[in-house]
Amino acid sequence: MRFPLSIFPVAVGQVIDALASVMRVQEFLLAEEASEDAIQDHGNDNAIVVRDATFTWEQTRSRQSSDGSVIDEKRVESPNTSMSQDTFQIPELNLTVGRSELVAVIGNVGSGKSSLLAALAGEMRKTTGTVMFGATRAFCPQNAWIQNATVRENIIFGRDFDRSLYDRVTQACALLPDFKMLPNGDDTEIGERGITVSGGQKQRINIARAIYFNADIILMDDPLSAVDAEVGRHVMEGAICGLLANKCRILATHSLHVLHKCDRIIWLDGGRVKADGTYHDLMDHNGEFAELMTLAATTDDKSKNADGEDLSGHVEKEVNLQTPEKTATSKSTSSQIALMQAEERAVEAVSWDVYVGYLRAAGSLMIAPLVIFLLTIAQVAYIATGLWLSWWTAGQFPLTLSGWLGTYAGLGFAQAISIFAFFVCVSIFGTKASRHMFQMAMSRVLRAPMAFFDTTPLGRITNRFSKDVDVMDNKLTDSLRMYFMTIGNIIAVFALIIAYFHIFVAAMVPLALIYLFATSYYNYSAREIKRHEAIQRSNVLAKVSEAIYGHSTIRAYGVQGHFVNTIRRAIDDFDGAYFLTFANQCWLGLRLDAIGLILIFVIGLLIVTSRFSVHPSIGGLVLSYMLSIINICSFAVRQMAEVQNDMNSTERVYYYGHRLAEEPPAHLGQLPTDWPHAGGIVFNNVQLRYRPRLPLALKGVSLQVKGGERVGIIGRTGSGKSTIIQALFRIVNLSSGSISIDGVDISQIGLGTVRSNLDPFDEHSDLDLWSALRKSGLVDETGANNITLDSPVDEEGLNFSLGQRQLMALARALVKDSKIIVCDEATSSVDFATDEKVQQTLGNLKGKTFLCIAHRLRTIIGYDRICVMDQGHVAELDSPINLYDWGASSGTCVRRVALAEATS
Q: Do 696 and 548 reside in the same domain of the chain?
C-alpha cells in the first residue's frame, strides 16, 4: 500500500486541476456567442437599409473574485468606443445606401465613424431597429489586420487564386512596385501582425484583400490616412472609384479633398448624424460644412498641401515592403535571411549546464548532497523496517514485545520524518529555482533587442512563459521527487537481495544492460517527441492569438471556417506529437514487464534452491520486495523520462534567461540632476544596421539639432526616418558613430534614463494631467466627450479610436515636460480641426527641442529646419523656405512633393 498511497496525493491534485479546467471550459462554452441578426435580402434594390437602429458596444459585467471583491470584466472588446463609463452608442440610425453608391463618413475624433463601420460589420450589438444587407460585405478596419503569412496569402485570404483578378487588384492598389523590391515578390513573408510593414502598406494590402474577396459591400475605415498623395490618388481612382465603381462603398475618412468624388457625405457628431447629403448640397446649404472646407483649403494652400498625406513622392516608387529594417535591404541579402526565425531546438540530451544552472537557481550546488543524504536515511529506514519485521517473525533476537514494537515504531518514525524532510526540501528548492529562472528569463526578454520581437512570434514567447514555466512550477518538482524516491527504492531492494543471494549479480548484470538499452532508446525518442510537442504547441498558440487579434475582420468576411480549419490542423499536429508520447510509453512498458518477469523467475529459483540456508521469512521479504519493485522499475524509467522531458522546458526557459541577447543595463552612469538642460542633439557619423549581415539602415548620418530648435524629418518610405528615432531612443544599438544629448553620449547612460514612461508613480497633479489632455485636443473645455482621468483603458487602448490614442500619447509627452519631444506621425489619424489645434499647442511650447517625422506637410512647414532622408543619408537639410526656393532649380524633395500634393 505504500506506493499507491504515495501516488494518491498526486492523483488528487490532478483531479482538482482537471475539474478547474472543465469549469473554465464550461464557462467559455456557455458564454453568449456573437450573433448576426441582420436580415439578408440579396434581391433588394439597396445594398444597406438601416431603420431606427441603435447600436452599442458591449458593457462590462462584474464578477466576484476569490476574496469577494467585485472585478469589472469586459465581455467583448471593441475597437473603438467612447471613454465614458457609459458605453458609446449610435442611437436611432436611419441609413440607406445604394448598390453602387460611394458614401463618405466624416466627423471629429471620437465622433463615431469607426463605430458606424463596426456596427455595419456586425461588431456592435444592435438593441433596437432593423438592419438589412442586400449583398456580401468586406471590412477594412482602421488598424489593418495582417496575417503572419505571405503577401499573396494576405490578399487572397483563403480564396482560390485567380491570376487575372489578382494582377488587376495589385495594380489598382499600387502594390506592383512593392513586389519588385521584395526578395521573393508577393511570396515574401510578412511578420506577425504586420509589424514589418508600414501603415500605408498594411492599408493597401487591406484594400486589395477586400477587392479580391469580390464582396458587394466594402466598408473602409480611413484607408487613405497612411499613404502619400500620389499613392492615395492612385488608390482612390484605380481601386475605390475604379475596380469598386459598381460596388457599395462606405468610406470613413479625414481626407476632405476626396469628398467631391463621393456620391454622398454623412457627417457624424457624438454618434448621431449631423448632416447627410451630396457634396454640392452641403456646400450650398450647410454653412458649417462650407466653412470647414474653406478653412481646410485656405490652410492647405498656404502649405502647398491640399491633400495632407505622407511625403513619400511618386506613386511610392521607392516604397519597400521590408522587414523590420525598413531601409534599403538588398534582394540578395534579404532572401538569405528568414523573417520569422525557426524556433531554436536542441537535438541532444539536456546539457549539464542546464542542470547546474537549475541547482544554482535553487540556491547552491550543495543542495544535491543534502537531498541525497535525506533520501539515503529514508531508504535505510524503509529496508530496516521490513528486515526488523522479518526478524521479529523469526525471533532473531531475544527481545520483549515492547522492545520489538518500540524499535519498529522508531524505524517507522525515522522513515516518515526523513521522507517528509526530503519532500519539503525538494519542494522548497524546486520552487526557488523556478522563481529565479522565471525572473531571469523575464528580465532578459524585457531587455531583448527589438529585432528579437520582430522575428519571434508572440505564441512562441507565450508558450515559454505559460506552459514551460508551469512545468517548472508544478510538474518538474513532483517528477524529481518521485524519480529520486523510486531510484532509492530500487537501489535499496537490490542491495538487500544481493546481501542474501550473491549469485543474483550474475543474472542482474545482463538483464540490467538490456534494461538500460531499452531505457536509453526510450529516453532519446521521448525527449525528441517532447521537444517537437513544445514547438507544435507554440504554433497552436500563435495561430489562435492571430485569429483572436483579427476576429473582427474574420467575422466581417465570413471566413470563420477557413481559420477554424487552420487552427484544427495545428491542433492535430500537436495532438500527433502528444499521441506519440503514449505510444512510446506502451512500447517501453511491454519490454520492461518482460525483463521484470525474468527477474522474478530468477529470484524464485534462488529462494527455492537456498531454502535451507535462508530463513523463509527473509525469502518471503525478498520476494515481496521483488514483486513490487517490478512496477517501481517501470515507474522509475517513466519518471526519468518525465524529468528529462520537464528539463526540456527548463532548458527553454534557461535559454531565455542566459543566452538571449540583452541590451545594456538600465542604469550605467550618474547624470546631472538637470539633464538634459537645453535639449541639444548631435548625431556624429551614425551608422546602424538592424541585425548582423543586413545592410546599413543609417549610413554616416551627421546632424546637429540645437536646444529649442524644431526640426521636421521627411523622406520616402525606407529612407531611414523612423530609424533615426529608434537610434535616438536606443531601440537599436549603433554599429558605429555616436549620439549625444547636451554633450552626454547616450551609449554611456542607462536605458532607464532614456525610455521613461508617463507619470508611473503619480508624480503629477490632476491639474497637470487635465491641462495636458486639453492641450493635446483629447478633451475640450466643454467636456462633451465625457473623458475623465478615471476612464478605463482596455488592453492596447482598444476602447479608444486610433486618433484618440494618438492624442493620448501626445498628452503623455506633454505631461512629462521633457526638453526633447519626438513625434512620429503623431496626428495622422485625427481630423483637420484637431490637427490644427495640436500644432498650435506645440507651437506655443517654447524652449523645447522638437523632432517630428511629418505625415502632413503643414505639420512641419513652420519648423526651423527640415531634414530630408534618402536611403539612410541626410540628403537635404535647411529651412523650409530655402529648400522650396532652391528646389525651383534643383527639383528637391520638398518642392517636388509640395507641387505634387497641391494638385491632388
A: no
